[in-house]
Amino acid sequence: MSRQKFDLLSFTGKMRILHLTWIAFFLTFVVWFNLAPMLQALRNSLGLDQAQVTTLLVLNVALTIPARIVIGALTDLWGPRRVYSGLLIVSALPCFAFAMADSFTQLALARLAIGFIGAGFVIGIRMISEWFPTEELGTAQGIYGGWGNFGSAAAAFTLPGVALWIGGEDSWRWAIGLTGALALIYGVVYRAAVRDVPEGRTYFRPRTATAMQVTSKTDLLLLLAMKLPLCIALGALAWRLREVELLSSAVLQAVCSGLLLLFLCDTMLTLRANRLVLTGEVPALERYSFRQVAILSTLYFATFGSELAVVSMLPLFFAETFGLSPVSAGVLASAYAVMNLMSRPGGGWLSDRFGRRPTLLILTAGLAAGYAAMGLIGADWPIWGAVAVAMACSVFVQAGEGAVFAVVPLIRRSLTGQIAGMAGAYGNVGAVVYLLVYTLVDTATFFFVIASTAVLGFVALLFLEEPSGEISEVAADGTVTRIRVGLRA
Q1: How far, rounded to the nearest angstrom, does the alpha carbon of residue 432 sit from its chain's CA centroid?
Q2: Most distant CA pair in the chain: distance in Å?
Q3: Considering the entire predicted model, what is its pTM?
Q4: Which residues contact 241 (CB under 8 A, 6 or more apart)?
Q5: Across residues 389-412, what is the average pLDDT?
Q6: End-to-end alpha-carbon separation of the chain, Å?
Q7: Is there a contact between 93 and 35 (Cβ–Cβ < 8 Å)?
Q8: For the packed helices 171-193 and 39-46, what is the interaxial angle rounded to 10 degrees?
Q9: Which one of 177, 368, 421, 476 has the minimum C-beta count within 10 Å?
Q10: In 3D, which of 400, 324, 336, 332 has the Cα closest to residue 368?
Q11: pLDDT value at position 489?
């Protein structure tokens, strides 16, 4: 692959793939977050109460937890081109269903299904890692993530205006349905316009896609422990649905039993996929440190998890705190997400230039301070002050996300989709946890809780190793085929 100049204005070679892929990610976020700016109109149209509104917010991010694990594995197995296009096309269907819903139950089921599109992020992580060299990877991943995440801001400040232009009680339906149509069309375009790897390169697949492979017994235990919170978060969601009487007690028990069975089955598959670890010793050249995956997942819990939660509630928070209209509140709240355009690429660039670990330490400390400041926002604040604090906080949050995924592709290329899926799933676990907290406490406490978890992430970061050295990349048949930069085992 030629090392062409990193020129954002170019639309050829690797830059063409970057642009086409961030646009795909952008559209997934437009669809995923078309709910927040429409909440007031939707609530008035269908007469929803506050408990139902907050439940929809939690449902919006719930299914993305298992979806990111599944989509990550499918990406490694089938390639990002087919998986991304398929996800965009299929996810348009629940989007249309949500736009046509006329009861809370229909809204809840459609919103739960729409959450699957949030898994699109991990697909692009693998695609970008195939097209860019290591020294540009942090910047490229930051641009992909940041410009794609901007879809939530675009939804916040455009959809209320679209609904106002259409007019009428059902205008919110047309605005949301439009986002599904865009995803459907672009899914077809993306499949025809990209390829998984540059010409002449091999697409490395894992030996098995049923479970992530690790290279030591300690890492195997850590992997199993890391999967337990994913099931607990889904159980907490089921409990929330019982609280708003969307599920009966019998169904709640069945869901919890099913989650336990799912965890046991997944444990068996994980043990089967890692038989070599249990029966022998993995060759030194094939080892990698899964502990780094756990640390990065913890950080993504605090960074992306908090962003999802805050983006979901911020328009309504601004509207209720300062007495704003839906359009005004949506525009102001979008200031939090709009920083993605610069912050997330900036986090990746800083990581490429100054090192992964130092950059993450500084950014995590900043986001903890930022959320503590947001917890002080009240009706006596000037609106410009509240917006300024939200924007400053978002800089650290989103730059931290970019810095996290400047490390993820450097762990093991053939497992990039699964590793990104694990870290991404923890981002959604964070969103579910934070939004459940939001349903139980006041807004100030909500922000202080996020700040506290960021401090825990900072402590975990102290054990992260700076990427260095060289490790082998192993093909699906077990052949050692090339050497690349990676993380010390």
Answers
A1: 12
A2: 67
A3: 0.77
A4: 55, 59, 108, 247, 252
A5: 87
A6: 28
A7: no
A8: 130
A9: 476
A10: 400
A11: 38
Integer angstrom CA distances of residue 2 from 38, 198, 375: 46, 9, 49
Contact predicate 340/147, CB 8 Å: yes
| Tokens linked to 449 | 């809780």
Kindly tell me the burial class for residue 3, based on how many C-beta atoms sit within 10 Å of its own C-beta (0-12, 13-18, 19 or more): exposed
Nearest-5° Cα angle at 263, 260 to 266: 150
108 assigned to some structural domain: yes
Contacts of 459 (CB under 8 A, 6+ apart): none
In which domain, by residue range, is 157 found? 13-197+210-485
Distance CA 444, CA 293 (A): 31
The pair phi, psi for residue 278, each rounded to 5°, is: -80, -30
CB 85, CB 186: distance < 8 Å:
no
Mean pLDDT of 207-222: 80
Q: Tell me which amino acid residue 107 is.
A: L
Structural domains counted in the chain? 1
Q: Residue 132 pLDDT > 70, yes or no?
A: yes
Range 384-394 average pLDDT: 90
Question: pLDDT tens digits, residue range 134-153?
Answer: 778 888 888 898 888 788 77
Place of tokens 């997400």: 337
The span from the CA of 303 to the CA of 365, in Å, is: 11
Q: Is residue 7 part of a domain?
A: no
Q: In the 8-state DSSP scheme, what is residue 209?
A: S
DSSP code at position 274: T
Poorest-confidence range of 112-116, 238-242, 389-393?
238-242
3-class DSSP state for residue 472? strand
Helix axis angle, 443-461 to 356-374, nearest 10°: 160
* 2 in any annotated domain: no
Which CATH number goes with the domain that contains 76? 1.20.1250.20
pLDDT of residue 303: 93
Cα dist from 114 to 1, 64, 130, whole Å: 37, 9, 28
Q: Please, is 89 exposed, middle or buried when counting C-beta atoms within 10 Å of its C-beta (0-12, 13-18, 19+)?
A: middle
Tokens standing for residue 105: 């139950």
